[in-house]
Amino acid sequence: MKVAVVDIKGKETGRKADLSDAVFGIEPNKHAVYLDVKQFLANQRQGTHKAKERAEIAGSTRKIKKQKGTGTARAGSIKSGVFKGGGRMFGPRPRNYSFKLNKGLKRLARRSALTMKANDNAITVIEDFNFDAPKTKDFVNVLKALGLENKKSLIVLGESNNNVYLSSRNLKASKVVKSSELSTYGIMNANNVVFLEGSLEGVEANLAK
């Protein structure tokens, strides 16, 4: 699959980037995508939720009324969850929500996500660029030229580029990552994935295994 390479002004350079069919042209596995996204979101959960149970409530331990003859249910503790101010029954406890996925399945999920974007014509290849200094305005101008100013976008760098990364940090709708940091959630969450020309080799090397 060939995609035209554009410059930072959004104009075609006359070159075409060859996207590997092994990464951008497979039969998408939607279940693998689902599992990888589910794992990503599960890993974001802190799992620090906690409610006090009856053993942790401060209160009297005496039996609050006699066992029989009251005409109501028997009760032994004011700290029971059936009473106001009592403990929470079956309340949340701290836990770890993360789970394991095989590396092969995660690579399949990322290839599937990239294929879906390619099928939707939501992949752009731009020639490598840099800024003299971190400036959000310069980064916004690039997004405007690509028609992505008001859309969620994922910019994929070949290697660390501090000026480009810092220029994008104030923009909620745009995210900059290195090719080694590419995630299925990041791909699926973006309306458009923009690859710097130099990042394609690293992406294909990481995923075409």
TrEMBL record:
Biological processes annotated in GO: translation
Entry keyword set: Ribonucleoprotein, Ribosomal protein, RNA-binding, rRNA-binding
Pfam families hit by this protein: Ribosomal_L4
InterPro entries linked: Ribosomal_uL4, Ribosomal_uL4-like, Ribosomal_uL4_dom_sf
Disordered as annotated region, ranges: 57-77
NCBIfam families on file: rplD_bact
Assembly, per entry: Part of the 50S ribosomal subunit.
Protein name from the UniProt record: Large ribosomal subunit protein uL4
Organism: Dokdonia donghaensis DSW-1
Primary gene name: rplD
